[in-house]
Amino acid sequence: MLKEEHERLAQVGPGTPMGEMLRRYWQPVGTVPELETEPVQPIRLLGEDLVLFKSERGEFGLIGSRCAHRGISMAYGIPQENGLRCAYHGWTYDTEGRTVDTPFEPTCLHMKIPAYPVEELGGLIFAYLGPIETKPLLPRWDVLVREDLDRVIEIHELPCNWVQCMDNAADPVHFEHLHAVFGNYQLKKLARPPAMFPARHLKIEFDVFDWGFMKRRLLEGQTEEEAGDEWRVGHPLLFPNILAVGGSHAPTLQMRIARDDTHTVQFAYRTTVRKPGAEARPLVVIRPKLFAEDGALLEPADCVPNQDMVAWVAQGPISDRTMEHLASSDKGVRLYHDMLFEQAERVARGEDPMATVRDPEENFPMLDIKRERSGSSMKQFQSRYGNYFEQIATGQKS
To answer: What is the pLDDT of residues 334-393, one digit of tens each?
Structure first.
């Protein structure tokens, strides 16, 4: 990859091609349970320092990190009925970033600091950092809205660029090496038996559809029929930064969100299907720490998610793609990079990028995907995968 392409792919700050593209999508920035415990939280998202808060009225807001008066951090703000009050001189900002109270300074009312729309869905707080006039609907993915699931949100802070996390999702072949061979090696060091057989990949394929692409695999020792859904259907990468995984009883969304060029936060939205008649469990949020300050691994790399995160971080803060040698097994990575560049160019032309949801009647992308939409590539996709999404809708698969 050329140096210019490498930089364009990795950089996410305001005004960068990839940063502007990512700003056209809703991104998770926090959770409802954590805001109940700590209603004022400093965050970093797409290279911007911001403050997420919950007012005493119960409204969620995301505003710039500095008070317009003397520049103190709003991370020290005090929640009020009408917004967030600065700790220094009491200037108070509503969820749109406008001053609603400026003690001793009446002429400063209705000043403004940056603010972004936020919405809650499934216990997550999502933010939209793009132009207001282009704001799409927040996608109502099935895992976020189903009422038969118990939920745990794992939040992982990772010292690496977000693209190398997502490249992993477009790379089926790593499974036999990173998860089987390396995973068995980690178990051996713990005096435990191997957990996986490293079957060789015979074929991998990728099918682009409206919301991203499906990745499929066929392993050594399997016929296409024996491989079942792993070959006939696969599982989706939801553009630009969500991987949908898990079996029918534990559907999961892994959302990889760029804090800046060298830091990523993963929201792993893990669910289990509740037994009929069972009482719903409260949403739980945990923040496991995988790496020490010196980079040493704190948690054992004997489980699949930890192995993935080790691989992402081990590539460095920003993987130097000018040194890469992508081969035939990397065609999913090539496809994903091409899609990123293509969608960034669409945004630069003033167009919607793919997977933008605007019609409220169609805002069940993973539930109502069988419905025909004129002028869409979905008709061909439905003929191949319609039953798969019907199973999602009935809770048989995710």
So the answer is: 999 999 999 999 999 999 999 999 999 888 776 533 333 323 333 333 333 333 333 333
pTM of the model: 0.88
Query: SS in 3 state form for the chain?
Result: CCHHHHHHHHCCCCCCHHHHHHCCCCEEEEEHHHHHHCCEEEEEECCEEEEEEECCCCCEEEEECECCCCCCEHHHCEEECCEEECCCCCCEECCCCEEEECCCCHHHCCCECCEECEEEECCEEEECCCCHHHCCCCCCCHHHHCCCEEEEEEEEEECCCHHHHHHHHCCCCHHHHHHHHHHHHHHHHCCCCCCCCCCCEEEEEEEEECCEEEEEEEECCCCHHHHCHHHHCCEEEECCCEEEECCCCCCEEEEEEEEECCEEEEEEEEEEECCCCCCCCCCEEECCCCECCCCCECCCCCCHHHHHHHHHHHCCCCCCHHHCCCCHHHHHHHHHHHHHHHHHHHHHCCCCCCCCCCCHHHCCCCCCCCCCCCCCCHHHHHHHHHHHHHHHHCCCCC
Q: Which domains does the chain have, with CATH numbers?
A: 27-127 (2.102.10.10), 142-346 (3.90.380.10)
Distance CA 108, CA 344 (A): 39
Spatial contact of 201 and 209, defined as CB atoms under 8 Å apart: no
Q: What are the tens digits of pLDDT across the range 236-285? A: 999 999 999 877 788 899 999 999 999 999 999 999 999 999 999 999 99
Q: Are 25 and 351 in contact (CB under 8 A)?
A: no
Q: Give the model confidence (pLDDT) of 103-158 as tens digits.
A: 999 999 989 999 999 999 999 999 999 999 999 999 999 999 999 999 999 999 99
Distance of CA 384 to the CA centre of its chain: 27
